[in-house]
Design goal:
13 helices, 21% strand, alpha+beta, binds histidyl-adenosine monophosphate
């Protein structure tokens, strides 16, 4: 994988020492090995807020009748390239790909939709009741330039309704996305909405777009000049200042829809209105993946200015199944970014009490590992329990137990162990009573 844009701040052997302690291996100084650039750990404390977002996702998905599916993190490279489109950033510049030991071309999934549509056919879900309503929560991989809210491994809550042509499903998945964001406390949202037509009406529209932009070509930035003939739709969502003045006069897809697309476009908006879901029409919203047809949408924090990344986004993809060599199957869905959503939840002061590692901490005072393990085992029939095996003073163990946030400590010394009793201490009130080991479950439940 080329690293042209990437001076590795953390890794790499040639880098200068950064002041951290060096380990010696075979007499040679070694830098501590850090995580790969653009990926991150989610610590147990951070996981608390992630759990809230994941539980909300599952709850909302189930409320709307969506069932969980898991698909592999690795897929045939061709599936991704044909699915999201070979010319897209996700399938070209940003794709993590490799040849496996059997010589197969593999990609780490950059998104979930293509894999889920593959699985829909592989497991006969196309033969069951339609549409198949499915959701997935898991990591995706894109070799994007890392920055806040944009990572090389990131997590999506992905929702798909496959096998249903009705635009009512477009409104439904928009409602699911919104319900999830509201459920995690993000009420202040802006929904942007557009239609990009279908195979019937879009080609003629794209020609109009090319005709409009061709005389302006020299005034566009380099990438847009290249896009003009290949993928003119992307000219509309270009953010480079020099390309902005021309957008206003560009023809709009909504003025060139075929009858079917027009009807779908009307229905989606009517259903959103009926559901009380506000939206802004954005004629420049076209999305970065090739498989979209008709409805496309993105949710932003209401306060966000134009450059901010979307919290959740999606649309209809009626041509995707055929693109990956399957019979036609219409579909619509979205994916929400868990990294961005949890970051915003944290920024907005969402209070999450992170769970203690264990409710009970067993503190042997002395060399009593086997006895402590036994006490913990007894306790675990009713409460989570951990043992402090460290060879340190009881005082130090009490301080550590406090930091862990355990509700009770079970303390005993050699004499007490001989009598099979312990001091059961309520960490909040400080109250302490002597109890027999066998009584612990009754006392703690
Ligand atoms: P997407 O817009 O590429 O669409 O990604 C969906 C969401 O994933 C984004 O709105 C964002 O919240 C999050 N996301 C994307 N890239 C990153 C990144 N590098 N770091 C952190 N978060 C990121 C799709 O993936 C489509 N498969 C959505 C879809 C499902 N369309 C139909 N069905």
């Amino acid at each position: 994988m080329p690293e042209s844009d990437d001076p590795e701040p953390n890794g790499g052997g040639s880098q200068k020492p950064d002041g951290t302690k060096k380990h010696k291996t075979g007499g040679k100084p070694r830098e501590p090995i850090k995580a790969v650039r653009g990926v991150r750990d989610i610590t147990p404390d951070e996981r608390a807020i992630w759990r809230v977002a994941e539980h909300a996702a599952k709850r909302v998905a189930h409320r709307y009748g969506y069932r969980e599916i898991e698909t592999p993190l690795i897929e045939p490279r061709e599936l991704i390239e044909r699915g999201v489109g070979e010319g897209t950033d996700a399938a070209s510049k940003e794709l993590y790909r490799f040849e496996d030991r059997g010589g197969r071309e593999i990609a780490l999934r950059p998104e979930a939709t293509a894999g889920i549509v593959r699985a829909y056919f592989d497991h006969g879900l196309n033969q069951g009741p339609q549409p198949a309503r499915l959701y997935l929560i898991g990591p995706m991989f894109r070799y994007d330039r890392p920055q806040k809210g944009r990572y090389r491994q990131f997590f999506q809550f992905d929702v798909e309704a496959i096998g249903g042509p009705s635009a009512a499903l477009d409104a439904e998945v928009i409602e699911v996305a919104r319900a999830w964001l509201v459920d995690v406390g993000l009420n202040d949202l802006r929904l942007e909405l557009n239609t990009i037509g279908d195979q019937k009406c879009r080609p003629a529209y794209l020609e109009l777009l090319r005709k409009y932009y061709r005389p302006l070509k020299s005034q566009l930035h380099k990438e847009c000049q290249e896009r003009l003939e290949v993928n003119p739709l992307r000219l509309l969502d270009c953010k480079v200042p020099q390309c902005q003045p021309f957008k206003d006069g560009a023809p709009r897809m909504t003025d060139h829809l075929c009858d079917e697309c027009e009807a779908a476009w009307t229905l989606v908006r009517r259903l959103l209105d009926a559901a009380g879901i506000g939206y802004q029409l954005n004629p420049y919203l076209v999305r970065g993946l090739d498989y979209y047809t008709r409805t496309v949408f993105e949710f932003y924090p209401a306060s966000a200015s134009g450059q901010q990344d979307a919290l959740a986004s999606g649309g209809r993809y009626d041509g995707l199944a055929a693109d990956i060599g399957q019979p036609d199957a219409p579909g619509v869905g979205f994916a929400g970014g868990l990294d961005r959503v949890t970051e915003l939840m944290t920024a907005e002061g969402e209070e999450v009490v992170s769970e203690p590692a264990a409710e009970v901490i067993v503190l042997p005072d002395g060399d009593l590992a086997a006895e402590a393990a036994e006490v913990a085992r007894v306790t675990r029939s009713v409460r989570s329990a951990a043992v402090d095996y460290e060879p340190r003073s009881l005082r130090a163990k009490m301080r550590a137990a406090d930091r862990l946030g355990a509700r009770w400590a079970v303390i005993f010394n050699k004499d007490e162990a001989a009598r099979r009793v312990a001091q059961l201490k309520d960490m909040a009130s400080g109250e302490q009573v002597e109890v027999g080991w066998d009584e612990l479950p009754a006392r703690l439940s």
